[in-house]
Specification:
Radius of gyration: 14 Å
CATH topology: Cytidine Deaminase, domain 2
CATH superfamily: Cytidine Deaminase, domain 2
Helix content: 10-25%
Mean pLDDT: 94
Number of strands: 8
CATH class: Alpha Beta
Order of helices and strands: EHEEHEHEEEE
Distance between the termini: 12 Å
Amino acid sequence: MLYVSNDLIEKINLHLEEAYPEEGAGFLIGGEGQVKQILSLPNAREDDARHNRFLFTPEDYLKAELQADSLGLSLIGVFHSHPDCPNIPSEYDREWAQPFFSYIITRVDQGRVVSHRSWRLVEDRTKYEEEEIEII
């Protein structure tokens, strides 16, 4: 189970709708299955691939780690959008995912958030399992 406040869901929605028609993304910061903060980031992928791919730079990752550390929290996952397509993990998503992270994938159709789903990569990296999101 992943717990996310309504306020943070609204911040995720805003970032992903602003990124449309490209994928938007960011980090989930918290602990014990509860998202306490998000870090929205620009999509560093090359221009012609941003519609269906996102990329964090090493500097983005460091920024997120430092922010989490300063709050006494941890990086617990990633959020990103799937513009105009289902919010299920792609093979590309699986190849780049880390076990133990939660991955919120948000469907954004025609610039508006439709739904959120969260996934966790199994330890052997062969597939994802869906986890329930509770908005608190």
